[in-house]
Amino acid sequence: MLDINLIRENPKLVQKAAKDKNVEINVENILEIDKKHKKLSIAVQKLREERNILTSSMKGKPTPEQIKKGKELKEKLEKEESELKKTWDDLKEKLYQIPNIAKTDVKVGRDESANEVIRKHKTPTKFSFTPKDHLDIGEALDIIDVKSAAKVSGSRFGYLKNEGALLEFALIQLALEVLTKEGFIPIVPPVLINKEITQGLGYWQGKGNEDYYYLSDPDEKKEMYLVGTAEHSIVPIHKDEVLDVKEMPKRYVGFSSAFRREAGTYGKDTRGILRVHQFDKVEMVSFTTEENDDKEHDYLLNLEEKLFQLLDIPYQVVKMCTGDLGFPIARKFDIEAWMPGQNKYREITSASTATDFQSRRLNIKYIKDQKSNLKEYVHILNGTAFAIGRTIISILENYQKEDGSILIPKILQKYLNFEKISPKKI
Predict the structure, then answer these.
(1) Which helix (H) or strand (E) holds 94?
(2) Cβ contacts of residue 246 below 8 Å, gap of 6+?
(3) Is the Cα dihedral 292, 293, 295, 296 positive or negative?
(4) 102 within some domain
(5) DSSP state of 207
């Protein structure tokens, strides 16, 4: 949620920022509702003061005039309070439809075609033979099984088996080892979140809601969503809390399964485990101050690059334009790994800042000044350490050998009892 004062003082900026994200809003209408809300708030406050004065003036048995006046005030106050609540609900709904404003250094663009490649690491892997894609490799080595998964769960699911399953755990260990040494707090979060939490995160407004799995529990009268990433249940861990600035930046590294319907993408990237409904991720979340937001964003991106440099995978860093930013996101970088089997770079991690957009909705603050007890909303950032499935794809395709085997990146060998995965002998 944006600061209402920002909207009042910079309506044109807010209107343009939404348009740059391809989101339609009517700031004039929002400000009209805001004025009505302010007027009603003042009226309600005056009525409450009148009632308090009347109550304090009563000594002993109230007079008929006082009783009449008290009844009139009560009825009028109830009416105004009801109208105030309706107006606030309307205003809040409108405010929730406003996306976060992109940072000033973000390029204005309609879609991913305007994204910028800002640097590359290593040249794309070359082979003396025609490289296979991850599914051909995985099925031949009996480490990926989508056919059995289709029988059990339907399309866009897969089993990781044998060395493939062990490779996942090795990647998790690597990420946890690197990040806990950096001071990240390891956490395994819930994968179900309440509906009101989704509203606080801001991914379910404007666009994106159709991608997430919705569940209801009629017995408990609950509406819940399955998380699309560990970040969705880590960010709200400090809801309604005031953090100690001395502990900031407060960083978490979480591991969980994630779930996405991938609505609207049928027919796209359906082969193998690139775009599936269930996948595992190691995710970073950071709570910091406004002054350190940019520095923290660079830090998370550098950690992501470090992890892929340890794996020795060619990649490029891409900066998203406004039209390719998520609803709550102010700036985002993607790392795209080279996929020889597809002969192209594909998104494999992202690092984003939501500034104070989510913390305003979730009421997460810190004390900026101890003497005055001044509180500010924290800035919240997130970054993918490893999207496990896509990372495994990049390893299989970049480390494949002509005989069908796969070499294991050196950094992972210490977590495994093998240095390569070879075709099974029949």
Answers:
(1) helix 64-95
(2) none
(3) positive
(4) no
(5) S
Take residue 317 and report the two structure tokens written for it: 């860093």
Residue 107 lies in a domain: no
What pLDDT score was predicted for residue 368? Answer: 83
Token output for 404: 């069908």
Which range of residues forms the domain containing residue 36? Answer: 4-95
DSSP conformational letter for 269: S
Tell me if 220 sits within 8 A of 195, measured CB to CB: no
The 10s digit of each residue's pLDDT in 395-413 is: 999 999 999 999 999 999 9
Kindly give the residue spans of alpha helices, DSSP state H, lying in 96-194. 134-140, 146-153, 162-181
Domain total of the chain = 2
Would you give the distance in Å from CA 144 to the centre of its chain?
28
The pTM score is: 0.92
Q: Give me the half-sphere count of Cα atoms (radius 13 Å) on the Cβ side of residue 326.
A: 23
For residues 297 and 378, membership in a common domain is answered with yes
Instruction: Burial-class residue 188 by CB neighbours within 10 Å (0-12, 13-18, 19+).
Output: exposed
SS3 266: coil
**Any bridge partners for residue 377, and if so which?**
365
Same domain, 91 and 118: no
Neighbours of 246 (CB within 10 A): 8
